[in-house]
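ZP: hey, is the zinc ion complex queued? I don't see it on the tracker
AM: it wasn't, my bad. submitting now with these inputs:
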Amino acid sequence: MRTDDRTGDDAPDLFHYVLKDKIAESAVMGTHVVALCGEVFPVTKSPDPNSPVCQKCKEIYDSLPPGN
Ligand SMILES: [Zn+2]
């Protein structure tokens, strides 16, 4: 079942980091994406780039080894 309604209830107010692999997978599967911080949201509800960056995501992203 597809749900295309946009209530905005679970739309993230923060810009979360999501691994490219996860985005591609979710886009194909039509499922939700999981941000680095564990936040889950529909791939269709990608945060506004102007939104403030999720600090938790940023911390995890910065701790990731380069090139991975
Ligand atoms: Zn986050």
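AM: back. The pocket of zinc ion is lined by residues 16, 35, 37, 39, 54, 56-57 (CB under 6 Å).
ZP: great, adding it to the tracker
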